[in-house]
Amino acid sequence: MDIQRVQIQNQDAAFEYADPMASLELLDIHAHAQMKRELFSAASQGAEGELRITLPDSVRPEPLASGVPASEGGATEEEFAMITIRIDYVLEDAHEAVQVVRPSADAPYRVPHMYTRPLGMNSSRCWVPCIDSLWDRCTWELEFVVPRRLSVDAGDLDDDAPEVFVVSSGELTEHAVHPHDPDKSVFYYTQQVATSVQHVAFCAGPFVLARLSPAGSGTCEALAFCLPEHEHELRSTTQFAWQAIEYISSVYGSYPFGSFKLVFVDGALVDCHTASTLAVCSSDLLHPPSVIDQAFENRHILSHAVAFQWVGINIVQKTWADTWLIHGLSQYLASMFLRWLLGNNEYRFRMKKDCDRLCLWDIGMPPLYQVGREEPLDPQLLPFVNLKAPLVLYLLDRRLCKMGASLGLGRVIPKLFLQAITGEMTQNALRHSQLFAHVQEGQWGRSPALCRSMDQREWLPALLVPRDL
User: Fold this and answer.
1) Distances (CA, A) of 280 to 69, 72, 264, 383
2) Could you tell me the sign of the dihedral formed by the alpha carbons of 459, 460, 463, 467, in that order?
3) CATH code given to domain 93-102+110-150+162-314
4) 94, 285, 388, 445 - which has most CB atoms within 10 Å?
5) What are the residue ranges spanned by the domains of the chain?
């Protein structure tokens, strides 16, 4: 990243940019230990920030007249006026965060397009200067300028050439021709719900649109996009996504955003990457209506992308140790929808297969909950967490129903979603103790046996299973 200019309140500001990874040299396998130490040291140095900006002498934080209440005792926190920072930068090598697909000698018919593909939790800084943290949220106004049509030769825009679209996190507020260059289009997106930069993504290319939600729907707008050669497979692959949104909204809580988009691209490293209001999926998931086996797998992958909007985007983990709970709840919601969609027999069969896989896999594996964890979960462990965490919640749900709480987690999860919408949940961050607190409330008929069963002391924190199993 080449930062060229920084302005504060329309005034040029001095800045220092230091990339701790730039000085590292890739060594061979024999120097692995040394390389590991250098990477750890560089990451520790970059944790405090890589861009330092000096405020101009004429710019100082100005307190506002009214403060924000900090406690019930009447104390207030001092609130300051907003300071606008403008950073002009150029991406020289964005392969760690942005994938650009072009025709090549091996694939000459590949359609040009691009999309964000973060390789880790802290890779957003690779394409935008930001506070790259899951818990630092803000609203977003995104503006994209792209060629109006896809053309081989610059300046030779054929009316028959496909039009270039930008699909981004947030809601599309305006799509217009560039005021100074008629060969370009401008897309304006607005994200009104505070979202971490790690959950902001975009795609650009000659996509074909399919509307999944019915006209006049009051829940949200659901859209699907794919490249031109796959449009005949798009609707058969994604039509059920609207049913997933409707089911979770009606059973557990309203959808937290205004839209949901599915975009299918080529060359994706994972089957599906979920961001705010957007899921970037691999084109390999697309299939015609005649294919049956792939349809079952796709419904599980894409329904989890829908459920992740509630738990994973709108609600995040309080600490890295609570990552299992976020992924477990989203997988649990997806499994409940698939149970409603495909039937109870398929649900029980899938549960049996998951239990068998877990028995073979969970040998020498780390626990789901690790006290004091201060770093993100290893991506290689995420499939294991996605397998085990919903099974743990299934045990909890069965225990609740066994002890007299007929609705099980079906009464706890809506309360969590309601707290996130009303602002009662601090920063929309959830920890496992909050889940147990809702379970222990008097809404379960004040059964002493149930309260004892759901006491956190009766569950092993490391293994996340009941003591008497």
Assistant:
1) 40, 44, 6, 18
2) negative
3) 3.30.2010.30
4) 388
5) 1-57+84-90, 93-102+110-150+162-314, 320-464
| Residue appearing with tokens 């996190």 | 169
Q: Give the tokens for residue 35.
A: 């390389």
Contact in structure between 225 and 167 (CB atoms under 8 Å): yes
Given phi > 0 = left and psi -120 to 50 = alpha, else beta, which region is 424? alpha
pLDDT string in tens for the chain (469-residue length): 788 888 888 888 888 887 766 666 666 676 667 776 766 666 665 556 778 888 888 888 888 776 555 544 445 567 888 888 898 888 877 777 888 888 888 888 888 999 998 777 777 878 888 887 888 888 999 999 999 888 755 455 556 778 899 999 999 999 999 888 888 999 999 999 999 999 999 999 999 999 998 877 777 899 999 999 888 999 999 999 999 999 999 999 999 999 999 999 998 888 999 999 999 999 999 999 888 888 899 999 999 999 999 999 999 999 898 999 999 999 999 999 999 999 999 999 999 999 999 999 999 898 888 887 778 888 888 999 999 999 999 988 888 777 665 577 888 888 889 988 888 888 888 888 777 777 666 444 545 555 555 454 445 454 454 444 3
In the chain the first and final C-alpha atoms are separated, in Å, by: 53
Which residues, 6 or more positions from 161, have their beta carbon under 8 angstroms from its beta carbon? 149, 150, 151
Closest CA to 278 of 392, 189, 182: 189
> Does domain 320-464 bear CATH number 1.10.390?
yes
Q: Is 366 helix (H, G, I), strand (E, B) or coil?
A: coil
